[in-house]
Structures are given as C-alpha cells and as structure tokens.
Automatic annotation (TrEMBL), chains A, B:
The keyword Nucleotide-binding does not apply. Belongs to the IspD/TarI cytidylyltransferase family. IspD subfamily. The lineage of its organism: Eukaryota, Metazoa, Chordata, Craniata, Vertebrata. One of its GO terms (biological process) is protein O-linked glycosylation via mannose. This is D-ribitol-5-phosphate cytidylyltransferase. Residues 254-398 form the D-ribitol-5-phosphate cytidylyltransferase C-terminal domain. GO terms for cellular component: cytosol. It comes from Melopsittacus undulatus (Budgerigar).
Length: 420, 420
C-alpha cells in the first residue's frame, strides 16, 4: 500500500501507518550479556520475529527499528539475513524515550527524498521484545488513535501493586480492579506524539517510560485503552525466552509437507500415514516425483512450511532427499528457521530377519551433517512393511516419531535412523 | 524440628513456623479446564512441586493446602503418590481470602490432639502456583514477620501501571519507580493475621486479594517488604507452564549417574565419556556390578538423581538394564518424575562391516515399552569402539546424545537405538 498521508478512511488500510520499534534495551533483567531483543529463539533473534509480525501487515508502510549505536551493524545483518523489507535502522538514544524520539524524527525531518519515510498519519510504537503481536490488536489501537489521538493496549494486573514507604515498609496497596498494566502496541496521531516529545522535559526523556503519559501531559490527549490478549507479553526474563521457544516450536509444528512417489506399494502407507498425521497437524501432500521446477513445492516453501517428510521405497536412498535439499537451497525464500526433513525409508522386503548395515548408518549421519550446514535438520525413520496386521500400528508409531521430531527440532539427533 | 510455640529465637529455626498454601483457584486465565495448580509438568502437578519446596525446609513444621471441595480427593491422591509429609488438606471457601482464613482456622481451632497443628508463632502464606520458592526468601520473610508482624516479597513492576477512567480512557499513569508488585511468599505473626481475618468485612473476604492489606487495615501492621528474585513468579498463563516445564527439565538435567563394570576395554570409554560429560553436568560414577543390595545406588536414588547411563560391553544385553529397573522399582523413593535410563552398548568387535539385526531392535523397543509403565524412559546408544583415532569423536557424539536425551526426556523416542 502506498502511504496516503492525511486520509481518514474507515479502516487502518486507508491511513498512512508506520511503526517505531525501540530495540535499544540492555537486557539486564535476563542476567545475560545479550540484550533480550537479540536473544535467539530457534536460531533467530527476537527482534526479527517482531519485525516479521509487523511486515506481514500490508497497511503498515514502514518500520523504524531503533537500536543502540553498538548494535547497528548487528541489526543490519539481521535485516539482510531474514530478508526484511520496509525497515529503516535508526541510532538510539541513551533512554527508551530518547530512542523513540529519534525514531519519530526520521519521519518529521525527512526531506521526502524517500517516499516511504513520509510522515504517517498514525504511528505505532511497539516493543521489539513482544514478538507475538497480532494484526487484530494493531488494527484496534490504530483505529482508536485515529479517533482519539492516542491508544494503548492494556492487560489485567497479575499481581497486586503496592506503594512502599521510604523505609521499605508497606504504605498502601492499590485496589487491583481499578488499575491495568499498560502494554504495547500503542498508537498515536503522529502530530500528537511528536509534539509531546518536542515539548517534554529532559527529566521525562531520561526517567519516563510511558508514551501515553507524554501524550496526556503535553497534548491533553487521554488515550483510549484497548484490552489486549495474553500474547502481548514482554520477553523480560530467561523464563520468557523458554516460553517463547515453546510457542515458536509449536507454531512451526502446525504443518507438514509429505512428498512421495505414487508407486502402488507406497500408496497405502502414504495414505495411512497421511490420515494418522492429519488428525493432529495440517498435512500438505505432494504426490509427485521431485523435479527442479516444481511450482507446488515452491509455493509450500513460500507458505512458511518448515517440515518435510520424504517417503521412499528405496531403502536408505539419499537421492530424493538430496533433491529436496537442492530445491530448498535454490528457492529464494530465506530460511527463517531450521527445516526439519524426515526421510522415511520403506522396507518392503519379505526377509523377516533383515538387518541394518553400519556403513549405511554412517552414510546417513555424514549426509545429515552436510545438510545441517544449510540449516536443514535431517532424520531417518525406518518403516518395515511386512505384516499387514501390524501395518496400522507401524503407521501410528511412525506418525508419533514424525510429530516428536518436528516438535523437538533437536539438532543433536540429526542423522539417526529411528525404527517405527 | 518440634514446634516451639512462642519462642523468639535468632532465626526461623527457633520459631514455630507453619505454611498455608491457597490452592483453590479456578485457572480461568490458562484457558483450560484444569486449574493451574493441578496442571502437570513432567507428569507431576504444580501444587506438588510447591509442597515439595516447602517440605524441604526443616523449620516449616506443617503445611496446610487449601483446595476447593471438588478437588479434595485429587489432592489426597497427590499427597499419597508423591509421598508428601506434614501436609493437611483443608476445604477452601469461594474466594482466595476465605480459603486462607479456612486454612488459618485449622491452627486456631485445633484442640491440640494433633501436636503438629498447634498454633504456630509465624505463618507463611504462599501460592500453590509459585513452585520455585527458595529457602532464602522464605527465611527472610519469616524473620521480618517475627520482627515486624508482617512481611511480603516484592518485585519491580514489569509494565507501567495505569488507572483507567470509567469511559475506558487513560486517567493517569503511576510513576513506576514508586510502586512494586506484591508477590508471595508472605509471612505474619499468626495472631496478627488471624485477628485481621476475624475483624475484616465480608466485602474484604469476597473482593480483596492482599493479605498485607488486611494486616495493615485491621491490625495497623505495616508489612516489611522484601525484594524477591524473579523465580517467585506465579504460573498464570499457558506460556508460564511452558517456562516451568523448561526450568524443571533443566533442573532434572543437572546430574547423571554412570553405571559400569570395570573391564579393561570398557574402562577407557568410561573414563573419556565421564570426562566429556563432566564439563557440562554433574556426574556420579558407580563402578560396580549391580547387585540388589547396593547402598551407593540407593543413596543416589534418594539424592534425586533421575538420569542413569549403563555402559555395557554385552551388545544389546538388557540384563544389566533390567537389574537397574528392578532396583528403582524396589527402592522406597517415590519416583517424582520419569527416570531417563540410557543403555550404552559398546561394540568392540573387530568386524568393520557389522550390522544391527531388526529382531534386536524390536526387542529393545518392546523392553522399553514395558519399563515405561514403571515411569522409566529407556533409550539405547550404540557405541562403536574400533578405530582408536576416532574414539574421542565417538565419545563426544555419545555425550551429546546423552545430554540431548536427558534434556528432552521425550517419551516418543523410547526404545530407539541411536548411533554415537
Ligand atoms: Mg511507552
Ligand atoms: Mg495476598
């Protein structure tokens, strides 16, 4: 969408909306040296998730990420690696408010050489460490800001808030129902929040934290408060990183693509496995022999599917797996996360006392270590297809292994051949 | 320690201290049917972790768990299953304050037939959904309560707190530095908090949340505020369960016990594996042939080690593993969590083109499914010991697999034979 400064249409889509993400924090509370916005979850820095959440929304025309001077280079490489568009990196100040102000100045002082950096009607301010923000709440705060000048997401208080006296004793406790936690995103008519920052004191810039407060104090704008969901929480402590990791692993495990050729003996296993997985996860089936120009697979890559199952009746054959690896590599989609690739080896031999050769196991491990360098986690599953009576049981076992491997995404287990 | 009501010694150890854990909440915020105190982490309900954290502290003479009437039976079975001692289950009221009051009444109205339920000097009040409470903070609030009548743990506010006007607009925001989040544990002189509950109004009992507030309002006792650590957080949302799961898995992965016989060919692998693991985890080595009366192993069980590695040069032999399973079963220690048991099969044959028979793999899987019923997660690692040049590499690979299996505790991967 082109910015259309000044329009007041019915939805956020009709307004020029930009976003400023302060990402200058020092991460002290995590107890580690890495500021929390640069901590990685599934190998990807949190700030990239948050930028991604904003980018997905077509009516946000531009995203300013404000980082401290020492992290500008790091942020540049993140933007490049994850293919972020519509992002400008801005040098932060020594406090959160000074950083946000720097971000806003880019729009106010832009000489219009860059069309995208034209002053927006509404600006969203959102923390880089709140990666799970959804379009719904962004739309709500933007609409409310258009109508009322300022708006912010709120949540119920989890704990009672108390005032302490100077001597470290309880002075009084607040009645919990009357107060709310002020969260992000917030949104403002650009002219209001920029005016507030221009008017405010050095004390405000150095010790304040709340943009809503500045809009009220300097522009007499009482922000509209919008109830947000629990997803808006701020990654603050180490435990929040654990939680983010689990949520993201869960999100990555929503969909699997099954690739198979359609020989008759494979078809039944394919069908049953598909059915078994379908009850617990979205399954995309690609029933073709892989070829380099396969548009269907390319669509699936672009659709952010990070889990692939290759079913092959060529025992331990790495050829088809290699083809998929090549396609992933040649696809223009940046790999935001490690891809899980599970090679299911169908053993249809009648020989009941078969065995697995160590050389083959070693070969699979070696191959897995190679493709790991391409951010692909390769695992093998051996599927013995002999006894028709046990077929459903084996299918269920294979499905459980596939789901476990997808959920865990464990890099230490690559190259292992598991038995269904 | 025997309760010594009325003593005012130098530390909590000299006071009679009891604890009341309100566990009557409905868990609405988790969005699930199970109240959060009964949600399981590694199969064990959160409330059992919290009771366990209290039980470990010798100077807490008794623990009252207050649950809603429909959960009394469930709580009884938890106490039995996890072998909790010094616990009395009390029927809760319809609100948090009414539940706490019910808990306190047990001490006040006790006719002294039960010595342990004698009125304590100090009572701790702690949430059942804050499982990571440490002795340090409990000791601090108890000491402060002895000195000042009331005390409570506090934390800095994560978000700014705002007051909303009736129309849903911002009224004002609080200056973050002047306020704190009131957390748990809290502690009180029993007579003060009991007096407060007796004096307070129905409105307080129905709509209040803060015990510190009651002590101030009805007994003019300004609580001493004690800065707590981030561990004190309350499991409130689903993401908090994810975080708790990661923390507990991390705690369970601190220690591994390696069991081996000391044949010469095994000794070198044992030594190198020990060294490789030691740099990342506490290793207890038991270099004996297992026997049923082995006191050393019994001590390790009691010491809450939940990870065992059996190194054997009998390829795929389940006998030694079976012995350990039997010992775990016969030990009187209740299994609080699933035990991870990794059977490392040393293959010292000179044959370079060896293979693994499918029958053996099937046998290991079947055995693993059997011991799973005993809450033991069994995994196999095949360790090929042929080429001296590659020995260190294989050792490192085995150590990485062992750590991954211990960290993940994945029940879907039991019975698999991984190759180091
Ligand atoms: Mg703010
Ligand atoms: Mg309270």
């Amino acid at each position: 969408m082109e910015p259309s400064c000044g329009s007041r249409g019915p939805g956020p889509a009709a307004a020029a909306v930009a976003a400023v993400l302060p990402a200058g924090g020092s991460g002290e509370r995590l107890g580690g040296a890495t500021p929390k916005q640069f901590c990685t979850v599934q190998g990807r820095p949190l700030v990239s998730y948050t930028v991604g959440a904003m980018e997905r929304i077509s009516w946000i025309s531009h995203i300013i990420v404000v980082v401290s001077p020492e992290n500008i280079e790091k942020m540049n490489s993140i933007v490049e690696k994850y293919g972020h568009k519509r992002v400008t990196i801005v040098r932060g100040g020594v406090t959160r408010h000074r950083s946000i102000f720097n971000g806003l100045k880019v729009f106010a002082e832009n000489n219009f050489s860059n069309q995208l950096l034209q002053k927006p009607e509404v600006v969203i301010i959102h923390d880089a460490v709140r990666p799970f923000v959804e379009e719904d709440i962004l739309s709500k705060v933007v609409m409310a800001a258009k109508d009322h000048g300022a708006a912010g997401a709120i949540r119920p208080l989890v704990s009672t808030v108390i005032a302490s006296a100077a001597d470290g004793f309880l002075d009084h406790s607040l009645e919990r129902a009357r107060y709310r936690a002020s969260e992000m995103p917030q949104a403002f008519l650009f002219d209001i929040i920029y005016e507030a920052y221009q008017q405010c004191t050095d004390y405000d810039l150095d010790y304040g934290t709340e943009c809503l407060h500045l809009a009220l104090k300097y522009c007499k704008t009482n922000a509209k408060l919008v109830e947000g969901t629990a997803d808006l929480w701020k990654v603050t402590y180490k435990r929040d990183l654990y939680a983010a990791e689990s949520i993201i692993k869960g999100n990555l495990s929503q969909q699997v693509c099954i690739i198979t050729n359609v020989k008759e003996d494979v078809a039944q296993v394919n069908f049953l496995l598909h059915e078994s997985l379908k009850s617990r996860i979205k399954v995309e089936a690609v029933s073709v022999t892989l070829s380099k120009n396969d548009g269907q697979l390319q669509d699936i890559f672009s659709g952010q599917c990070y889990n692939f199952v290759c079913i092959s009746d060529k025992k331990y054959a790495v050829e088809e797996t290699q083809k998929l690896v090549d396609m992933l590599e040649k696809s223009n989609t940046p790999l935001l996360y490690p891809v899980v690739l599970i090679s299911v080896h169908l053993d249809v031999s009648e020989n009941t006392s078969c065995s697995i050769g160590m050389e083959e196991l070693t070969r699979i491990k070696k191959f897995a270590r190679e493709v790991k360098k391409k951010n692909i986690l390769l695992y093998g599953i051996l599927f013995q297809y002999k006894d028709c009576l046990l077929l459903q049981e084996t299918v269920n076992s294979a499905a459980a292994l596939i789901l476990a491997l997808i959920m865990d995404r464990n890099p230490e287990l690559i190259g292992q051949l598991l038995v269904a």
